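S.,

Sequence below, as promised.
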Amino acid sequence: MKKIFFEGFIEEHKVNTQLAVQTYLNRKHRSEHPEGKFDKQMRWYPSEREKCECCEWIRQPSNRFPYSLLFHCRTMKHIANLYGITEKELKDGLKNELMTRRTGEWQKYDKTITEKSYLYYKSLIFKKKEFEKICRIYTV
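The prediction came back faster than expected:
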C-alpha cells in the first residue's frame, strides 16, 4: 500500500515539475502573465492564489516601482514555490526541456548561429591580415 502511494506521489511531483517549467517559459516569453490586478495608480498586486511565502520579502509596489511584485512573480524562485518544488528541481526540469527541444528548428537556429560566428571569425582574421600588410608597408 505504501509503495503505491509513493509511486503516485512521484508521478504527481513530475507533473508539477513539468507544469512549473511550462509556466516559467511562458512567463519568461510573456505569453502568460501572473494572476493579479492593477489598482487606480497602476500598481500591480498578485491574487491570493498567486501569493507565496517568497512574496513577503519583496518590496510592496509604489508609484516609483509599480511592478516590483509582477517582476518577482516571473522568477524561478516564485514559480518553484507556487508549484511546491525546489528551485533546483525547476532548473533541472528546464534543462531537460531545453535539451529535448534541440531538434528541428532549434538545430537550424544553432546552425545559423554557428555559421554567422564562423563568418565573423573569418572576417576578423582577414582584417588582421590586411592590417598586418598595411603595417609592413609603413614600417619598411
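Strands lie at 36-38, 44-46.

Coffee later?
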